[in-house]
Amino acid sequence: MTNAEVLKLILKVTETLENNKIYIDQLDAKLGEGDLGSKLVENLKKSMEQVHKTDTKEMSAVINFVGKSLGKFGGKIGKIYGQSLKEFALQIGSKEELDLSELVLLLDYIISKLKLRSKDRSVKDHLTFWLEFRQGIQKQALSNKSTAEAIKQTLSQLKWAYPSTRSNSLSLVRVLIVRTIIKNL
Predict the structure, then answer these.
(1) Of the candidates 8, 32, 1, which has an alpha carbon nearest to the alpha carbon of residue 172?
(2) pLDDT (0 to 100) of residue 12
(3) Which pLDDT band, with edges at 50, 70 and 90, does 165 fall under?
(4) Which of 12, 36, 137, 147 is deepest in the core (most CB within 10 A)?
(5) CB atoms within 10 A of CB 69
(6) Contact status, residue 37 vs residue 169, Cβ threshold 8 Å
(7) Which residues are within 8 A (CB) of 97 and not within 5 positions of it... i.e. 6 or more apart?
(8) Rounded Cα gap, residues 11 and 21, in angstroms
(9) What pLDDT, in 10s, does the model give residues 71-129?
(10) Given a cut of 90, is residue 172 above it in pLDDT?
């Protein structure tokens, strides 16, 4: 998966979240501060501004900018994803493409961070999603599919691609991101 494909997906995800940020904020207000959608969109836009400002072609820089943005908007989940992405960016160095083995490495970073906090119910939901996603990606890797096709195929098969019985802001964000990725790969 090329840097351009990753950037396109991030822009599409940002657009989707922006179109739904008011509803996400309303759901978030039930349990949190009511600003999850707005903050997430704001920080993703800032990370894309950094990417365009630096005109980088390196995957690690793009992932690092997004990781920094996610780590800033608060909450344990944002910090976990932010830290995982930043560590992964350091690991892949100056690559301009992401293959399936590197995607599995990223998933391992995320899963290991989530396992450290797995007693929290919201973290358990995320951990379950990423474990299922990683298992699906590993199966796809055996079929010699491209990274983009493997991601799309795996996400399409996960139950998490559809509305949750527990409707909260984080599960809505996850569903929106998954559906946007499936649609745009």
Answers:
(1) 32
(2) 92
(3) very low
(4) 36
(5) 24
(6) yes
(7) 1, 2, 3, 59, 147
(8) 15
(9) 877 677 888 888 999 999 999 888 878 888 899 999 999 999 999 988 877 788 888 88
(10) no
CA angle in degrees (0–180, nearest 5) for 64-27-136: 50
The CATH classification of domain 3-184, taken from the options 1.25.40.340, 2.40.10.500, 1.10.287.110, 3.30.70.100 = 1.25.40.340
Reply yes or no on whether the pLDDT at 166 is more than 70: no
- Per DSSP, the residues of 29-66 read HHHS-S-HHHHHHHHHHHHHHHHHHHT---HHHHHHHH
**Cβ–Cβ under 8 Å, residues 1 and 97:** yes
Q: Determine the Cα–Cα distance for residues 160 and 151; give it in Å rounded to an integer.
A: 13
